[in-house]
TrEMBL record:
Keywords: Sigma factor, Transcription, Transcription regulation. It comes from Nakamurella multipartita (strain ATCC 700099 / DSM 44233 / CIP 104796 / JCM 9543 / NBRC 105858 / Y-104). The keyword Transcription regulation applies. Gene3D superfamilies: 1.10.1740.10, Winged helix-like DNA-binding domain superfamily/Winged helix DNA-binding domain. Coiled coil: none annotated. The keyword Calcium does not apply. SUPFAM superfamilies: Sigma2 domain of RNA polymerase sigma factors (SSF88946), Sigma3 and sigma4 domains of RNA polymerase sigma factors (SSF88659). GO terms for molecular function: DNA binding; sigma factor activity. This is RNA polymerase, sigma-24 subunit, ECF subfamily. One of its GO terms (biological process) is DNA-templated transcription initiation. Belongs to the sigma-70 factor family. ECF subfamily.
Length: 208
Protein backbone atom coordinates (compact mmCIF):
# COMPACT_ATOMS: atom_id res chain seq x y z
CA UNK A 1 0.00 0.00 0.00
CA UNK A 2 1.02 3.65 -0.34
CA UNK A 3 0.19 6.32 2.19
CA UNK A 4 -1.08 9.57 0.68
CA UNK A 5 1.82 11.88 1.48
CA UNK A 6 -0.23 14.86 0.28
CA UNK A 7 -2.52 14.28 3.26
CA UNK A 8 0.47 14.61 5.57
CA UNK A 9 1.63 17.71 3.72
CA UNK A 10 -1.85 19.13 4.15
CA UNK A 11 -1.68 18.59 7.90
CA UNK A 12 1.70 20.29 8.12
CA UNK A 13 2.55 23.93 8.50
CA UNK A 14 4.58 25.34 5.58
CA UNK A 15 8.28 24.73 6.11
CA UNK A 16 11.42 24.78 3.98
CA UNK A 17 12.09 21.41 2.38
CA UNK A 18 15.61 20.03 2.59
CA UNK A 19 16.86 16.98 0.70
CA UNK A 20 16.65 13.79 2.76
CA UNK A 21 19.14 10.98 2.23
CA UNK A 22 17.51 7.51 2.22
CA UNK A 23 19.93 6.09 4.82
CA UNK A 24 19.36 8.75 7.48
CA UNK A 25 18.69 7.31 10.95
CA UNK A 26 15.12 7.35 12.28
CA UNK A 27 16.07 9.57 15.22
CA UNK A 28 17.52 12.21 12.89
CA UNK A 29 14.45 12.12 10.67
CA UNK A 30 12.17 12.49 13.69
CA UNK A 31 14.10 15.53 14.92
CA UNK A 32 13.90 17.14 11.49
CA UNK A 33 10.19 16.35 11.25
CA UNK A 34 9.61 17.84 14.70
CA UNK A 35 11.39 20.92 13.39
CA UNK A 36 8.66 21.17 10.74
CA UNK A 37 10.24 19.37 7.77
CA UNK A 38 7.53 17.29 6.00
CA UNK A 39 10.09 15.56 3.77
CA UNK A 40 11.77 14.00 6.77
CA UNK A 41 8.47 12.56 7.92
CA UNK A 42 7.63 11.39 4.40
CA UNK A 43 10.88 9.40 4.48
CA UNK A 44 9.70 7.72 7.70
CA UNK A 45 6.36 6.97 6.04
CA UNK A 46 8.05 5.31 3.07
CA UNK A 47 10.28 3.34 5.42
CA UNK A 48 7.46 1.93 7.57
CA UNK A 49 4.21 2.07 5.62
CA UNK A 50 4.33 -1.56 4.41
CA UNK A 51 5.22 -2.89 7.86
CA UNK A 52 2.42 -0.93 9.50
CA UNK A 53 -0.04 -1.95 6.81
CA UNK A 54 0.92 -5.56 7.59
CA UNK A 55 0.04 -5.02 11.25
CA UNK A 56 -3.32 -3.46 10.40
CA UNK A 57 -4.35 -6.04 7.82
CA UNK A 58 -3.49 -8.92 10.16
CA UNK A 59 -5.62 -7.44 12.91
CA UNK A 60 -8.54 -6.43 10.69
CA UNK A 61 -8.40 -9.03 7.91
CA UNK A 62 -9.58 -6.44 5.37
CA UNK A 63 -7.17 -4.67 3.02
CA UNK A 64 -9.30 -1.58 2.41
CA UNK A 65 -9.88 -1.00 6.11
CA UNK A 66 -6.19 -1.64 6.81
CA UNK A 67 -5.16 0.96 4.23
CA UNK A 68 -7.45 3.55 5.85
CA UNK A 69 -6.15 2.72 9.32
CA UNK A 70 -2.52 2.92 8.19
CA UNK A 71 -2.96 6.29 6.52
CA UNK A 72 -4.88 7.69 9.48
CA UNK A 73 -2.20 6.38 11.84
CA UNK A 74 0.58 8.21 10.00
CA UNK A 75 -1.46 11.42 9.90
CA UNK A 76 -2.07 11.06 13.65
CA UNK A 77 1.65 10.44 14.20
CA UNK A 78 2.55 13.61 12.26
CA UNK A 79 0.17 15.68 14.36
CA UNK A 80 1.42 14.11 17.59
CA UNK A 81 5.13 14.41 16.81
CA UNK A 82 5.65 17.07 19.52
CA UNK A 83 4.66 14.37 22.05
CA UNK A 84 7.28 11.91 20.80
CA UNK A 85 10.09 11.33 23.30
CA UNK A 86 13.65 11.29 22.03
CA UNK A 87 14.47 8.19 24.09
CA UNK A 88 11.76 6.11 22.36
CA UNK A 89 11.96 4.17 19.08
CA UNK A 90 9.87 5.62 16.27
CA UNK A 91 8.97 2.13 15.00
CA UNK A 92 7.65 1.07 18.42
CA UNK A 93 5.61 4.26 18.64
CA UNK A 94 4.11 3.63 15.19
CA UNK A 95 3.33 0.01 16.03
CA UNK A 96 1.39 1.26 19.07
CA UNK A 97 -0.60 3.84 17.10
CA UNK A 98 -1.48 1.42 14.29
CA UNK A 99 -2.37 -1.40 16.69
CA UNK A 100 -4.67 0.83 18.75
CA UNK A 101 -6.38 2.29 15.70
CA UNK A 102 -6.90 -1.13 14.11
CA UNK A 103 -8.41 -2.53 17.31
CA UNK A 104 -10.64 0.51 17.69
CA UNK A 105 -11.81 0.05 14.10
CA UNK A 106 -12.66 -3.61 14.71
CA UNK A 107 -14.41 -2.92 18.00
CA UNK A 108 -16.36 -0.04 16.51
CA UNK A 109 -17.86 -2.44 13.98
CA UNK A 110 -18.63 -5.04 16.67
CA UNK A 111 -17.00 -7.86 14.75
CA UNK A 112 -14.09 -10.19 15.24
CA UNK A 113 -10.90 -9.32 13.34
CA UNK A 114 -9.84 -11.94 10.80
CA UNK A 115 -6.03 -12.31 10.68
CA UNK A 116 -5.66 -14.90 7.93
CA UNK A 117 -2.85 -14.07 5.51
CA UNK A 118 -0.36 -16.77 4.54
CA UNK A 119 2.46 -15.61 6.82
CA UNK A 120 0.13 -15.47 9.81
CA UNK A 121 -1.30 -18.92 9.09
CA UNK A 122 2.18 -20.42 8.78
CA UNK A 123 3.22 -18.86 12.09
CA UNK A 124 0.08 -20.18 13.78
CA UNK A 125 0.28 -23.70 12.41
CA UNK A 126 4.05 -24.16 12.64
CA UNK A 127 6.30 -26.23 10.41
CA UNK A 128 3.86 -29.16 10.36
CA UNK A 129 1.67 -27.56 7.68
CA UNK A 130 2.40 -25.84 4.38
CA UNK A 131 0.14 -23.23 2.82
CA UNK A 132 1.29 -24.04 -0.72
CA UNK A 133 -1.23 -25.40 -3.21
CA UNK A 134 -1.19 -29.20 -3.57
CA UNK A 135 -1.83 -30.82 -6.95
CA UNK A 136 -3.65 -33.76 -5.34
CA UNK A 137 -7.35 -32.79 -4.89
CA UNK A 138 -7.82 -34.80 -1.68
CA UNK A 139 -4.70 -33.44 -0.02
CA UNK A 140 -5.59 -29.95 -1.20
CA UNK A 141 -9.05 -30.27 0.40
CA UNK A 142 -7.51 -31.50 3.66
CA UNK A 143 -5.07 -28.60 3.73
CA UNK A 144 -7.89 -26.13 3.01
CA UNK A 145 -9.87 -27.54 5.94
CA UNK A 146 -6.81 -27.29 8.18
CA UNK A 147 -6.14 -23.67 7.25
CA UNK A 148 -9.81 -22.84 7.85
CA UNK A 149 -9.40 -24.31 11.34
CA UNK A 150 -6.31 -22.15 11.91
CA UNK A 151 -8.25 -19.06 10.85
CA UNK A 152 -11.04 -19.88 13.29
CA UNK A 153 -8.55 -20.50 16.10
CA UNK A 154 -6.84 -17.16 15.47
CA UNK A 155 -10.12 -15.25 15.24
CA UNK A 156 -11.30 -16.83 18.50
CA UNK A 157 -8.36 -15.45 20.48
CA UNK A 158 -9.16 -12.42 22.65
CA UNK A 159 -7.78 -9.17 21.22
CA UNK A 160 -5.08 -8.84 23.88
CA UNK A 161 -3.72 -12.33 23.23
CA UNK A 162 -3.97 -12.17 19.45
CA UNK A 163 -2.20 -8.82 19.13
CA UNK A 164 0.69 -9.87 21.38
CA UNK A 165 1.00 -13.15 19.49
CA UNK A 166 0.98 -11.39 16.09
CA UNK A 167 3.64 -8.90 17.16
CA UNK A 168 5.88 -11.65 18.51
CA UNK A 169 5.36 -14.55 16.09
CA UNK A 170 4.63 -12.78 12.79
CA UNK A 171 6.34 -9.40 13.16
CA UNK A 172 9.19 -10.87 15.24
CA UNK A 173 9.21 -8.13 17.87
CA UNK A 174 11.10 -8.84 21.07
CA UNK A 175 9.15 -9.49 24.26
CA UNK A 176 10.15 -6.05 25.51
CA UNK A 177 8.97 -4.41 22.29
CA UNK A 178 5.63 -6.24 22.53
CA UNK A 179 5.29 -4.94 26.09
CA UNK A 180 6.15 -1.39 24.99
CA UNK A 181 3.79 -1.45 22.00
CA UNK A 182 0.84 -2.78 24.00
CA UNK A 183 1.75 -0.67 27.06
CA UNK A 184 1.89 -3.53 29.55
CA UNK A 185 4.62 -4.97 31.74
CA UNK A 186 7.14 -7.44 30.32
CA UNK A 187 5.67 -10.25 32.44
CA UNK A 188 2.16 -9.47 31.19
CA UNK A 189 3.31 -9.51 27.56
CA UNK A 190 5.09 -12.83 28.05
CA UNK A 191 2.01 -14.26 29.75
CA UNK A 192 -0.30 -13.20 26.93
CA UNK A 193 1.97 -14.70 24.28
CA UNK A 194 2.24 -17.94 26.27
CA UNK A 195 -1.55 -18.17 26.66
CA UNK A 196 -2.08 -17.44 22.96
CA UNK A 197 0.35 -20.22 21.98
CA UNK A 198 -1.31 -22.57 24.44
CA UNK A 199 -4.82 -21.88 23.16
CA UNK A 200 -3.76 -22.23 19.52
CA UNK A 201 -2.04 -25.53 20.30
CA UNK A 202 -5.18 -26.80 22.06
CA UNK A 203 -7.44 -25.74 19.20
CA UNK A 204 -5.20 -27.38 16.61
CA UNK A 205 -4.31 -30.55 18.56
CA UNK A 206 -6.73 -32.67 16.52
CA UNK A 207 -4.82 -31.84 13.33
CA UNK A 208 -1.40 -32.98 14.53
Amino acid sequence: MKVDEAAIDGAAAPAPRRPVKPDVDDAVLVLRAQDGDPRAFEQLVRRYQQVMFGVAVRILGDRDEAEDVTQNAFIAAWRRLPEFRADAKFSTWMYRIVTNQALNQARGQSRRPRPADRETLEAASGSWVSTTVDADPERHAQRAALLAAVRRALAALPDQLRVCWLLREVHERSYQEVADITEVSLDTARGRIFRARQRLAEEMSAWR
